[in-house]
């Protein structure tokens, strides 16, 4: 009789442990299924964004004191440092003090990494002015902007900040959106600038 109670007790414990294990297994399977559905939903959205971002590229011509000067495609929003990296880094004769490695690049920009001892007046982006002397307000650096009539150092900085925040100027008239550049200032500037 004692043997029957012992056997029934052990059998009861085995049945309870089996039910608990089965319940836990089923519950974890449902949780894993829900987790996988959620992850795949986010992966699909992320892949869509990645495809969208991948299509937004710019082309830059990297020259000067870099190991592999060439024309490169970079993600929109890339900076000069990204262009230097993709070009294999700088050579030992690069003069990095003369450039802003954090400057945002624009499409079709030419980036020239200066060589130590090069003339101070040589800009690292050579597409800022044309043969008529007009300065491209989308690519000009602070020094070039400061050289414009009626534009001092503080307005030059404001133009660059505006450009970094809002992207390229669509027209020369858009420069009037800069604080301190009104119609009178624009009249002095309009023949000296381009986009």
Number of domains: 3
The number of strands is 5
**Radius of gyration over C-alpha positions, nearest whole angstrom:** 32 Å
Q: Give me the number of helical elements.
A: 5
Average pLDDT number: 79
Top keywords for this entry?
single chain, 195 residues, alpha/beta, DNA polymerase, domain 1, 3-stranded mixed sheet, two-stranded parallel ribbon, transmembrane helix, RuvA_2-like, Endo/Exo/Phosphatase_dom_1, transmembrane
Detail the topology: elements first, then pairings.
Blueprint: H1 2-54, E1 57-64, E2 70-75, H2 80-86, E3 109-113, E4 135-136, H3 142-146, H4 153-166, H5 183-189, E5 193-194
Parallel strand pairs: 1-3, 4-5
Antiparallel strand pairs: 1-2
Pfam families: HHH_3, SLBB
GO molecular function, one term: DNA binding
Transmembrane segments: 6-26
